[in-house]
Design goal:
Length: 246
Amino acid sequence: MSAVQRGAIDGVALATSLVLAPLDAWDRLANVFQSRSSLQEEVLRLQQENRVLKGQSQRLGSLLAENARYKALLNSARDIGDDLIAAQITSLSPDPARHIVMLNKGVNDGVTEGQPVLGAEGLIGQVTSSGNRNSRAVLITDSAHALPVQVNRSGLRAIAEGSGSIDRLVIRHLPATTDIRVGDLLVTSGLGGRFPHGYPVARVTEVITLEGDAFATVFAAPSSLLDRGRYVLVVMWGDLEREAAP
């Protein structure tokens, strides 16, 4: 092959590469954009999966905590001699000033007005009314609720009133010299026949006696966390038992 022919072939190749160069560049650019779009879609997919997994993890944590509270409730039931009915809290009062809950058990299940309601650590309230399949209970912290208690250490009797705050009870008009201390456990006294004797109610957190005042004011935290958990125990505390109470 002559030098002229070889030169012609090289020239054709060069011309072809020059013609195809823009097309090749466009293809490469298109591939870059396609890859970037695919990466963006993959990132969005992974972000969505991460949100789903995070939500599932939070849900699992909530279920585990609820399961632990339910186990504690069942364990406490084994230590109580009275007959019990397990119930679930289905709703709360829409009035933030009232501490009232609805339960999914009623007269058909043996739940009637006046029966005590327990949490895992102690008394949380009392049934105030009951339908066939549902009932209403007032919590011990409701500002309109009061119950007779006694100091477990000394046997001192008093009336614990709801403060309107979900984590506090108050005892008023105690003589300033009364033997009551921070840390004392308050239990149901059984007086009046409203509650069986001996259920934990609250633990004293503060004793306030102003200088020159003849009376002390005592604050106590409920033994049970009233704003936690969905399950409670209703005590089968019937009319005959209340009449027989001291």
